[in-house]
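Reminder: ligand-aware prediction takes two inputs, not one.
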Amino acid sequence: MIVVGGGPAGASSAFALARAGARVLVLDRARFPRPKPCAEYLSPQASRLLHAMGALDAVEAAGAAHLAGMTVRAPNGALIRGDFAAPHGFPAFRDRGLALRRTLLDPILLDCARRAGAEVRERARVADVVRDGCGRVTGVRVLDEHGAQRELGARLVIGADGLRSVVASRLGLSRRRRWPRRLALVAHYESFGDVGAWGEMHVEHDVGYVGLAAVDSGLTNVAMVVPARAAREVSADRTAFFERWLRGRPQLAPRVAAARRVSPVLATGPFASHARRAWAPGAALVGDAADFFDPFTGEGIYAALRGGELLAPFALRALDAPATRDADAALEDYERARRAEFRDKWIVERLIGTAIGFAPAINYFARVLEARKDMADLLVGVTGDFVPAREVLRPAYLLNLFRHPGARPVVPARDT
Ligand SMILES: Cc1cc2nc3c(=O)[nH]c(=O)nc-3n(C[C@H](O)[C@H](O)[C@H](O)COP(=O)(O)OP(=O)(O)OC[C@H]3O[C@@H](n4cnc5c(N)ncnc54)[C@H](O)[C@@H]3O)c2cc1C
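Here is what comes back for the chain with flavin-adenine dinucleotide:
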């Protein structure tokens, strides 16, 4: 079996499959550690997956910062705070999120796959999938670091190759969303003022948002997401754009004044892509290759790790299938399982991602959630992957969200 991409989704898939006895080859175009624009926060429930892979101790030993929850500052100054440890009755695997630079995290995850028995080949860029006469994927076409091309055969190809997945696009599965079209810029700072145990999101009227969070080594990750119309300015000089944007926010300017940027500013986007379905005969997609909307809720790494764990038993069934139609049925079941697992979460992510594009909406909801800490905790628990997403899609929760801030709730925030 070939796994294309050695990020969290590829590492998790390769780990689970190799541990179950499958022969797994991971191909990644990069040499690790490689840069990856990301806010680098791991939800509390991601720790369960790290633990299952045997990576949690190494992540802690690498100096991961601990996050107690999230704060969101709306354009009107309303401040929402949600804690992971909260009295809503949904315990997380751990009541802290973790934050570690991807240059440290991703090699740890890939090593777990190696230790489980997967072979990992770096600097191997997959240029295309290989198909038989019936259109069934039978392998990949790879370019090595010297540009030499060869075909590698596999009974199953897993596309874990991220946002601009070659596997998904060659199979005609990727679908770019027209809206929202946003770009991201990310950098690490030393001595960024007043960064505490809560991850911070600052949403600005019409110009995007920025996330701040402590990571390892006393550094702060600063991740900015701006509308795609800023693309021209960003490409003219992304560092100047980034620093100008931060200095232009009165609440951030004094904090950034004393800070020192210790990394280049990385850029990515536009994102928001969604595979029509996460499989084709002979191939399956996982992680960002299958689905990515907006980084505001910071759940991509969890979804990538969980996606790999979820895929493994279906991939093994497909490998052992006596006939191609049985293999296809196994991958179709994977699709169903993915939808059952992530559907409610996709809805919540999309609602949040849409609301932050409209200042009046985010201002209104922020006022409500500022006054209702219980509702904020529940929502942050959903984004932390340990409160079921349906809890914030219940009529009671939604009704309270639309009630005027300060009005007495007519129904409890959570149906019991
Ligand atoms: C600005 C921003 C902030 C974010 N912040 C957070 C956050 O705080 N928390 C969180 O959980 N998520 C966050 N995310 C999302 C998270 O980064 C992704 O969801 C996660 O990295 C997905 O993992 P993946 O393994 O699917 O893809 P990736 O991590 O992108 O890995 C894909 C791998 O495939 C390799 N590859 C690509 N093409 C090829 C090819 N043709 N051949 C061979 N190899 C290939 C790449 O080199 C890469 O190593 C953020 C995303 C963005 C853009």
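The chain has a mean pLDDT of 93. The longest strand covers residues 182-190. We will return to this case in the review session.
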